Amino acid sequence: MIVHDIIRRPLITEKTSIQKEVANQVTFEVDRQANRIEIKKAVEKIFNVNVTGVRTMQVKGKTKQRGRILGKRRSWKKAVVTLAPGDRIDFFEGV
Known about the structure:
It is a single chain. Helices cover 27% and strands 37% of the residues. The protein contains three helices and six strands; from the N terminus they run αβαβαββββ. A hairpin with a 2-residue loop joins strand 4 and strand 5.
């Protein structure tokens, strides 16, 4: 699996911004078949940082309704990556 296929996108929310400031943790949406070791290697290679820990969780897709039509959002996988002290990943530099 290619490293850019493993890491789909960073998750930027209020909670993840606080995690980044307090605990030096960054959250990503990752491929559902990727394991912790593959995620760690991908983050280290793409962003050139040292990773000390990876926690993963499966996020179930929500059921949504528009009128009488029921649909379901896709399920996805989330990874919370803990970086070594002194390492940083900046998504919005100079904003």
